Amino acid sequence: MQEAESAVAAVKGTVGATATLAALPSTVARIVVPALDELGSQHPRLTVTCLVADQAQLRELTLGTVDVVLGQRYHHLPDATPRGIEISPLLDDPLLVVTSAGRADERPLALGELATHDLAVPPPTTDCGQAILRACHQAGFTPTTRYVTADIAAQLTLARAGLATALVPRTAIDPDTPGIRTVPIEDRPIRRLLFAATRHTETVNPTTAAVIAALRTAARRPG
Question: Which CATH number fits domain 94-191: 2.60.120.1200, 3.10.25.10, 1.10.3720.10, 3.40.190.290?
């Protein structure tokens, strides 16, 4: 049925009326909102429903619950993309070291320097938490995880207060956020690949192609 719908849409060559996008919370401000604005301008008849969740995006795609997923894969972790899913890379997104503006200089840090820091990091059950732990172990130390939370706003608040150092994806940080300082990891960067995923079909669906094109345009804008 999906193949038939895609084939009909491809023959018509027109963008449909509805689409469902699943996205990570950390991508909403910098990618999802600009992409939805672009779609509203280019395809005013298209209504996009956006589901924001930390987990199970690709599973929802395989079940047919959503049409496009804005997902992530950390380079320190193995690729676990299910069969039948087509991946379109959007952006290589490094984690930045976030500290209080009053307690740090602006030089890049070696990952090993974080061995002496109290960290605010996501739970080890999350992709980001696993990637941080693996990277730190490869650098020869076990991180001191003083605060464990997947809430990026909470991580930034702890960093701003000088209570912890956070490791946060660049696209998830508003560059105008007061009271924090961000610097890159210079020797062993921790990066995630942001991608758009769809179910594989033999013909290109104009609706999902339009959504992916808008996501790609938003991802390439300087932040």
Answer: 3.40.190.290
